[in-house]
Amino acid sequence: MALFIVLLITIFSGIACRNVTISNVIPRRDTNGSILDAHDGNVFLYAGLYYYYGASYGLCKEPPGPSGCTVWHVGGCGFQLNHNVSLYTSPDLSVWTFRGYVFQMSSMKTPGIMFGPRVLPNRKTNKWVMWFNFLPASGTGVSQSQCAVAIADTSQGPFQLVTDKVTTLAWENTGDLNLFQDTNGDAYIIYNAHIDASVYKPDHLMSVEKLSDDYLSSLGKEFNSGFFGQTFVEGGAMFKRNGVYYAVFGQCCCYCSEGSSVTVYSSLSPLGPFDTMNNLGNDGHAQLYNILPYKISGTDSYGYIWQGNKWQSSPDGAKGHDFTYWAPLSFDPNDSIRYMNYTANFTINI
Ligand SMILES: *[C@@H]1O[C@H](CO)[C@@H](O)[C@H](O)[C@H]1NC(C)=O
Ligand SMILES: *[C@@H]1O[C@H](CO)[C@@H](O)[C@H](O)[C@H]1NC(C)=O
Ligand SMILES: *[C@@H]1O[C@H](CO)[C@@H](O)[C@H](O)[C@H]1NC(C)=O
Ligand SMILES: *[C@@H]1O[C@H](CO)[C@@H](O)[C@H](O)[C@H]1NC(C)=O
Ligand SMILES: *[C@@H]1O[C@H](CO)[C@@H](O)[C@H](O)[C@H]1NC(C)=O
Ligand SMILES: *[C@@H]1O[C@H](CO)[C@@H](O)[C@H](O)[C@H]1NC(C)=O
After folding, report:
1. Atom of ligand 1 at shortest distance to CA of 17?
2. Can you tell me where the transmembrane regions are (predicted)?
3. Tens digit of each residue's pLDDT (9 = 90 or more) over 281-307
4. Whose CA is nearest to atom 14 of ligand 2?
5. How far is CA 207 from CA 48, 76, 220, 271, in A?
6. Band of pLDDT at residue 75, cut at 50, 70 and 90
7. Contact 113, 73 (CB under 8 A)
């Protein structure tokens, strides 16, 4: 009996409070032993569980060299028509269970390329809403990129397409997108766009825009921050801490192995105006896809993890096995974020 009680205490204290070491050099695996194939997606805490939605690129061989961005529609690896959106869940950011493909591009009437899926639960409508980048197969490349939205009754989908082209956004020719949910349930999209689709560089500008209450569309120019920050940027993410809204993004890095250094912008309002803060560097050689607030065990406080894709880093050549690089953010008393040193691993109390 005593042993039983000790065992129970051990189990419960284990659940209530655990130090988890997160590695950036050992591939992240699910409970089945498979390497997580979830890229350029989002990770968030909802009702005590961490949800990780991401694009699955599968087992095609990535091209050798410093860039995987060499091919568009045919026969390549990365910008293909068969991508799926995967969901993994975890109680502690360490043990991940694969919940299946929650959306498959093969279910689309119009074939195309999907990347950058982001999901949010909507408390008002009780639906799960997914936004993703969609490049119709008939298009010629990046200038045809548009935002698509899908919806599901549960976290595990299957998500059903609502529209393959959101027409309410202030800017067309959209690039990477990310979603941010405020504490009051309002949600925002941070996305980059080309004003002039005929030039690629340096025209690639970031802005933030409020979503409609149901998250299925956006509220357009009147609820757009206007472009801010550097040009030729992508990979944006937003979060809120101590009443400060942060927008973080870096230079374009199309499946590039170099990764991208990110600059921090902050504001007291989600739609800005944003002040330019510091640059966090690129010591991890990764491209930002998410900033994850996690609950620090035994407190009401949150820690923040920077998460990026390490393109062209696959241990066995399969693009789906590219590493992701995670690093804890640390803050100065004046709320600025400290430079991000490289970390092979770090331990959090979760
Ligand atoms: C977690 O680590 C902290 C400091 O590193 C330590 O004080 C604490 O006892 C550890 N907690 C558990 C449950 O191991
Ligand atoms: C997406 O899912 C389908 C059906 O399970 C599968 O055949 C296909 O290989 C998957 N695509 C990738 C890129 O893994
Ligand atoms: C684990 O792998 C087995 C065998 O491949 C498969 O049947 C099962 O669906 C997988 N389960 C999960 C949660 O991935
Ligand atoms: C915040 O404090 C740090 C360290 O004291 C300093 O380097 C940084 O310039 C400050 N940032 C702002 C925006 O004042
Ligand atoms: C990064 O490394 C420098 C030099 O070792 C150190 O002074 C600084 O505190 C480190 N920053 C963080 C956030 O750990
Ligand atoms: C964490 O990284 C350090 C430095 O590279 C290494 O010595 C240590 O073994 C690693 N720990 C784990 C748990 O991976």
Report:
1. 13
2. none
3. 999 999 999 999 999 999 999 999 999
4. 58
5. 31, 31, 11, 8
6. confident
7. yes
What is the residue extent of each domain of the chain? Answer: 2-349
**End-to-end Cα separation, the chain, in angstroms:** 29
Q: What are phi and psi of 202, to 5 degrees?
A: -95, 15
Angle CA 248–301–334, to nearest 5: 50
C-alpha 263 to ligand 4 mean position (Å): 14
Given a contact cutoff of 8 angstroms between Cβ atoms, the answer to whether 171 and 156 are in contact is: no
- Please spell the DSSP secondary structure of 193-245, one letter per residue: E-SSTT--SS--EEEEEEBPTTSSSB--GGGB---BS-SSEEEEEEEEETTEE
Residue 56 contacts residue 37 (beta carbons within 8 Å): yes
Angle subtended at Cα 176 by Cα 172 and Cα 180, rounded to the nearest 5 degrees: 100
- By most ligand atoms within 8 Å of CB, the mutation choice from 19, 20, 21, 297 for ligand 1 is 19
Torsion, CA 146, CA 121, CA 308, CA 70, rounded to 10: -30
Topology of domain 2-349, CATH: Tachylectin-2; Chain A (2.115.10)
CA-proximal residue: ligand 1, atom 2 (nearest)? 19
| 212 token code pair | 């409609």
Ligand with smallest separation from the Cα of 16: 1
Given a cut of 50, is residue 5 above it in pLDDT? no
The closest residue, in CA terms, to atom 2 on ligand 5 is 341
Query: Which ligand has the nearest atom to the CA of 24?
Result: 6
Rounded mean pLDDT of 64-83?
Answer: 82
Mean pLDDT, residues 17-34? 95
Whole-angstrom Cα distance, residue 177 to residue 276? 20
* Residues at CB less than 6 angstroms from ligand 3: 32, 97-98
Pocket of ligand 6 (CB under 6 A): 21, 23, 344-345
Contact criterion met (CB below 8 Å) for 91 and 50: yes
| Cα–ligand 6 centroid distance for 325 (angstroms) | 15
